[in-house]
Amino acid sequence: MKERHRENGARSEALGGISRGIKKDSSKRRVLRSGIGRVIAERILTVAGVNDEIITVSLGIPHRVDSDTWECPYSIEGLGSKRIARCAPGGDSLQALLVAVEGIRWCLMQSGETFEWDGDSLLGGDTGAIPRFLRIGMGKEFYERIEAAIKRETDATRKFRAPIMRRWLIEAGIPTSRSGRKD
Q1: Above 70 in pLDDT, residue 5?
Q2: Which residue has the higher pLDDT, 19 or 107?
Q3: Dihedral angle, C-alpha 88, 91, 97, 100, nearest 10 °
Q4: Are 18 and 55 in the same domain?
Q5: How confident is the model at residue 118 (pLDDT cuts 50, 70, 90)?
Q6: CA distance 4 to 20
Q7: Rounded to an integer, what is the distance from CA 9 to the centroid of its chain?
Q8: Looking at the structure, do residues 51 and 126 belong to the same domain, yes or no?
Q9: Model confidence over 121-144: pLDDT tens digits?
Q10: How many domains, in total, are found in the chain?
Q11: Strand ranges for 37-127 from DSSP E
Q12: 96: domain range?
């Protein structure tokens, strides 16, 4: 027994501690903190205007529940007094993952807060910059109308934001292709 322990210890040292579960790795602490198993994706948000109010959104690994059901765990810490930890169902691992992302988005929207992501509330908005999940089975015409509406709104937003972004870049001293022209 002692010989095996010594052998494992030597192997662990040779591998930099990897064979012993990576005790010093922060990802291990994140797993224990999140309560959702291994975290595969995480986003750090702040409440707009309140930089010390940090919200951590985490996604776990989707796992099979039975022959035709999957679940994807997710958690939200710092939003309200209690941590939100749930599992999103799906027919396969991808659907469970997508439904979990939508679950996170919904929880953030329901809070009524505006979030900053990467220091920008325009990026965060009320959903933490998490895109909407469209339900399946709505028909080809529905998806074509949605795509047209997204394109129309994206184009309108680009036109609206372009002069603002250009002004920010110029003020920051970053050259732009139009920085010599007045808008």
Answers
A1: no
A2: 107
A3: -20
A4: no
A5: confident
A6: 13
A7: 37
A8: yes
A9: 766 778 888 888 777 788 999 999
A10: 3
A11: 39-47, 50-60, 63-66, 69-77, 84-90, 115-117, 120, 125
A12: 35-133
